[in-house]
Amino acid sequence: MRWIALFLIGTFLQLLFYIPTPVLSQNTSSCSNIAAPLTPEEQTYARAAWQYFVKNYQSATGFTNSTGGYPSGTLWDMGNYLMALNAARWLNLTDQADFDARLNKFLTTLSSLKLFEDALPNKVYNAATAQMVDYGNNPIDRGIGWSALDVGRILAAFDVIRTCHPQYNDWLKGIVAKWQVGRSLKDGQLYGATVLPDKKTLLVQEGRLGYEEYGARGYQLWGFSAPKAIALEPYKMVEINGVQIPVDTRDFQSTNANNYVVSESYILDGIEFGLQGELADFAARVLDVQKRRYDATGQLTAVTEDNIDQAPYFLYNTVYANGASWATITDENKPYPQFRSLSTKAAFGWRYLFPDNAYAQKLFDAVKDLRSPNNDGYYAGIYEESKQPNKALTGNTNGLILEILYYKARGNKPLIASAAISTPTKPPSNNTSAATPTTPPNSSAPAPTPADTSKVTEVAVAPIPPVGNPESSSNLKLTRPLTVVERRYAEAAWRYFQANYHSKSGLIDDRSDFKGATLWGLGDYLAALHAARSLDIISAKEFDQRTRHLLAALGKLPLFAGELPNRGYDTRSLQAIDYAGNPVPQGNGWSALDLGRMLAALYNLKSYHPEYATAVDQIVLDWSYLRVVRDGILSSATVTKDKEGRTLTRVNQETRLGYEEYAARAFQLWGFDVEGSAVGGEYQTALVEGVKVPIQRQRTDTNSQVNQYTVSNPFLVYALEFGLDPKMRSLFEPIFQAQAERYRRTGTLTASATTLIDRKPYTVHSAVTAKGEPWIAVGDDGQAVPKARMVSTAVAFAYHALLPENQYSQKLFQATTDLYNPLTGFYEGFYETTGKTAVGFTGSTNSTILQSLLYTLINRQPLIRPAAMKSPWWEAVAQGNSGRGLPRIPQSTAELVTDSNGSYWISGSENRRVAK
Fold first, then answer.
1. Residue 864 neighbours by CB distance under 10 Å
2. Taking every pair of C-alpha atoms in the chain, what is the biggest distance, in angstroms?
3. What is the pLDDT of residues 400-447, one digit of tens each?
4. Where are any strands of DSSP class E within 667-734?
5. What is the distance between the alpha carbons of residues 640 and 889, in angstroms, rounded to a whole number?
6. Angle at Cα 232 formed by Cα 226 and Cα 237, nearest 5°?
7. Average predicted confidence (pLDDT) for the chain
8. Beta bridge partner(s), residue 906
9. Beta bridge partners of 291
10. CA–CA distance from 751 to each of 227, 718, 754, 793 (Å)?
11. What whole-number distance in Å separates Cα of residue 364 and Cα of residue 626?
12. Are 45 and 405 in contact (CB under 8 A)?
């Protein structure tokens, strides 16, 4: 069984913790192409703005101060600096060596930042020490939450850096992969986190019209879709100074968040993404209404948020906020009209976005020389009432000026390709899907294990020859297409199989921290391939290429004792390995459970894609079943050593609850008589939450002692693929009911499963019951693992697919849908006690999610359907005397039946008994 086979000693370094080596930039022509060189005056502006970052640089961290001399900064400020640094390089304000030194130091520190709840960067850090702080720059160990808008800002900056300096791409992807960005997305919107007075974390929706769309587009560049955030609704038009202005309807009074209309969000959108559609119209209106105010009052108006040089130090100068025109407010909606100011960055922005607009030129003329006499950068603006400079010096003002001047030098070409993002339109889109990010690097720092993997020789496996036209091979019909949200989930799950694919061998790692696979894990991969193709997540061409590659690799795996596949393989060399990744040339036995998983997946491939039948049958006909099927019962082989050091093989019956029944049904598809292992007979139970939960089969045919525990996984895979026959339903239902009752009694979400965790023992079974105790977590050795119980993402998806109307399954589903990284797939789940995401990825979880989505779209029918009986396998069975333990009769010993309870597979003997 795959969970046991990959028990390892190691830490999650690969993908999760990117350990970079300093790199040197290489020019990218699209970024270095200066189509409209700066005039001498503009060069003066650019040099002045760059001096802010020179003078506010923190050499210990590579960060810069958010305001002059004050060592503090948010993720938004960091994004400003990256944009400024990129602009400075292409405007020749800094040379190549300085650029690389600054960026390497910045990314090194950013890679090692302490994250809020180990999920996302804190709202603010000390720029000099990189410590988490509050807004007063006081160290705070836990942090104060995260800002989704700030995350969106730095993701946009990351995209510009990876485009203009592609050799930093892997480094940036490693950083994003480490962050649990999915936690800041919910119901298609952006969510920040804040800490309440009682120390609890509260997620709050972030963003109003303008900034919300900008932030969501930053997310979209990295494959995170927030369709509600990127849509313009909800908004209304409000007339101000004779101009209809778009205003978000979610105001302070109803949501405790300001719905301010300011200049900067539209300016950022224009210079980075290019103003298009409704946003272009909105931006023109926002500029025009400020001109109308000037026409009416004579007061030059360019309003946006800015730091100021006196208390309260930060204000929103708005066109409109919370029912008031031209409001100047704090974040708490307190008015400070006496400090309304003309913003330097807004004036620069409007001037270069609308170069032919006479009013924008007036604004620009008023601030273009508003520089510090000490060459510290540009001041933030001019107070309307006193006409005095607002002498606040900020990275925001000076960074935006540099970005704007770079935009001009590019010939007014947006910094980010418009093809990479969606353009918001007035009605929310019904077909927005996640962007497809580049597959992340397969390795950064190797995961340490006892094995020396430095000398592993990768084997190149050639795919089997083409077998037919894959475009028309599948006979599976969906009842409906995926919704936008479902497609996002499916694409995220498939990312695991992109990120952990070995292009030479054609194999997939069972888990992201280990270069190894079991037959169970490869069966997961084959099932995921079928689901991804059926859901149109991958093309017919990719499906065919990957399938032929996998089948070729399966045919080359060395067999234990020349009989059956080993328990584990190195996915690069195809060598048999032990549980720590050490090569074992003699092999380490086989698992009947893993064989069952692969047999089910191969049968399913033949059923829906019969052109592969000959290749599939050749693989399974190479195997010998003489010892795995004995007296109607499944058995597995292990290898031990005696006192003399001799290698001994021992074959014992499989008794693992749920897994035995699943594997037996798979063997029956191929005609094997495994009635003694198939679901049936009597089961011992334990009372959990007032429910009789099965703990093991009552049997006298073995005294095998294994670590027995009851988890959901095997019953769910069984239900998705084979349906719920009456006997399996009698086991499945109490397991689910006990978990639902626990939630009703305690409020603790429960989705018991076997999952990966990021500490010893690395694989944990969050059991319904184990060792006579309910609701404990145990390792493979049967020892309790404190505080390790987890709510499984895969279990939540599967229960929701199987029981869509059940309120508890709906709650589980809602709690786990955003637990994914769009570069590496869905996380295993979250811990019951802390709610923290479990950092780790497996093929099993992501395969189950894909299968659950497919199950929903085929009218909740069993995923496995009968395959054609005319194939090399059945011909060989019919010939008899194979010498390899093939079935005696050339027909399946399981049948698919349909009655009032639905469709499900049952043993052929059982069906005959029913017929009598």
1. 23
2. 102
3. 999 999 999 999 999 997 534 554 444 322 222 222 222 222 222 223
4. 683-688, 691-697, 709-710
5. 35
6. 160
7. 88
8. 895
9. none
10. 28, 16, 10, 8
11. 86
12. yes
Give CA–CA dist 721/712, Å, rounded: 15
Neighbour tally for 859: CB within 10 Å: 11
How far does Cα 742 stand from its chain's mean position? Answer: 29
Overall average pLDDT of the 305-327 stretch: 93
User: 604-626 b/e with 16+ CB inside 10 Å = b?
Assistant: bbbbbbbbbbebbbebbbbbbbe
Strands 320-321 and 243-248 turn out to be unpaired
* Spatial separation of the C-alpha atoms in residues 531 and 524, rounded to whole Å: 10
128 and 71 Cβ atoms separated by less than 8 Å = yes
CA distance 227 to 232: 10
CB 523 within 8 A of CB 841: no
Return the residue matching tokens 């082989």: 637
Picking from 370, 193, 384, 235, the residue whose alpha carbon sits closest to that of residue 299 is 384
Question: The whole model's pTM is what?
Answer: 0.58
Which tokens is 839 given? 């950092």
Question: Would you call the peptide bond into 234 cis, given omega within 30 degrees of 0 as the criterion?
Answer: yes
Short-list 652, 629, 666, CA closest to 706:
652
Cβ atoms 731, 664 nearer than 8 A: no
DSSP, collapsed to helix, strand or coil, labels residue 903 as strand
| Beta bridge pairs of residue 692 | 687
Task: Report the Cα 409 to chain-centroid distance in Å.
Answer: 37
Range among 42-56, 93-107, 247-261 rated most confident: 42-56
Which two tokens mark 79?
């994004």
Of 543, 607, 531, 533, the closest CA to residue 851 belongs to 531
User: Which residue type, as a one-letter code, is found at position 829?
Assistant: G
Q: Euclidean distance between the first and final Cα of the chain, in Å?
A: 37
Q: How many residues does the chain have?
A: 916
Residue 759's identity, in one-letter code, is R
List pLDDT tens digits, range 132-191: 999 999 999 999 999 999 999 999 999 999 999 988 888 899 999 999 999 999 999 999
Q: Please state the separation of Cα 861 from the chain's center in Å.
A: 28
Task: Check if the beta carbon of residue 77 is closer than 8 Å to that of residue 154.
Answer: no
